[in-house]
Amino acid sequence: xxxxxxxxxxxxxxxxxxxxxxxxxxxxxxxxxxxxxxxxxxxxxxxxxxxxxxxxxxxxxxxxxxxxxxxxxxxxxxxxxxxxxxxxxxxxxxxxxxxxxxxxxxxxxxxxxxxxxxxxxxxxxxxxxxxxxxxxxxxxxxxxxxxxxxxxxxxxxxxxxxxxxxxxxxxxxxxxxxxxxxxxxxxxxxxxxxxxxxxxxxxxxxxxxxxxxxxxxxxxxxxxxxxxxxxxxxxxxxxxxxxxxxxxxxxxxxxxxxxxxxxxxxxxxxxxxxxxxxxxxxxxxxxxxxxxxxxxxxxxxxxxxxxxxxxxxxxxxxxxxxxxxxxxxxxxxxxxxxxxxxxxxxxxxxxxxxxxxxxxxxxxxxxxxxxxxxxxxxxxxxxxxxxxxxxxxxxxxxxxxxxxxxxxxxxxxxxxxxxxxxxxxxxxxxxxxxxxxxxxxxxxxxxxxxxxxxxxxxxxxxxxxxxxxx
Length: 470
Hints:
The chain has 17 helices and 16 strands. By secondary structure, the chain is α/β, with parallel strands linked by helices. The strands form three sheets. Strands 2, 3, 4, 5, 6, 7 and 15 form a seven-stranded mixed β-sheet that branches. Strands 1, 8, 13, 14 and 16 form a five-stranded mixed β-sheet that branches.
């Protein structure tokens, strides 16, 4: 496969980045240090750094029992993770790994982290502010030691230390049924919100039994997916989400920050509002069914769903029409250029309170998953290693510039989370503000302008309280 995408991975690193990790091999002893005090220097801990481990050669006799908590309940239920464990154990027969799935992952896992004995590996909840990562998770290595080889290496890093390794990368676009688009006479993918809404109307006019845009409102978490599109994909600016937006007044206003009403955060949310208002979504959003929507998409009963690229494989596997499932960039252009947000999916984190042997075993398993398991390809995602090719499922992104959100410098690391908390607008995890858009469009009691006026007022107050003052 040819790499058909130019991936812009912008990283704003603090001046305090440390040199690559030094270390040595050897057996280890129990460690119960607090996460904030831990070091990745093997001379101090006796634990080699993540980047120093060679899977299949180091610690092949290591014995450990790992508990892994994941949001991917589907891959636990269907035995997919059991298959990965079986392959890993061909190299490490004395390391056992048991998985536990959580459905309401972000909320439940955030609570469970307050207990030191929740397990050994989990997908780090995005609700944990970057400066607090060390309170819960073990620093696996210095960022400088892997950032040239790993995509999105800075996603869960703080002060030059990596606390989470990306499980895969996501491009943010729209899952769609190619056969439905073709039957409705749509020959070119839309590049603006207006074109996209017009295409949804064409689908409805072609066959009113097909749902042009399925919201998956009832699932809740699927609604927060819309927040993932208001960054680089909507603005063309990698600094927007973590650096600029938390210091900007009225970020949700029409035309901000580009000056074009067809781009920016407002334009993203307006697609949802208008689609619901115009009757281009399911008749009753309260009755949507996430699992049931997958075969409906596969069979052509649903035309589009706004979800990350991780959803492609799930839709393909849900029926006999895998070839009909496509993935398109979100229909927004900035100054005639179409961008798409890209970033890490959940990152693997290791319990700071696990034993040293379990920490080493966990790093070995994470490294095997990241570099050798084909997990990213299996899930239709962007591979973790920069040296690996992109999957065919992202072929529609040919010529589209993928923009990863710039990591905030250390002095601003908690600014975005603090502003969102004080404004009660927790993006990418709390879905209530997006669900409000659907409810308002159905009931007709609020316009999108009414909603964003409330958001902006709360956001502005939070910016004034938290942003650095000149």
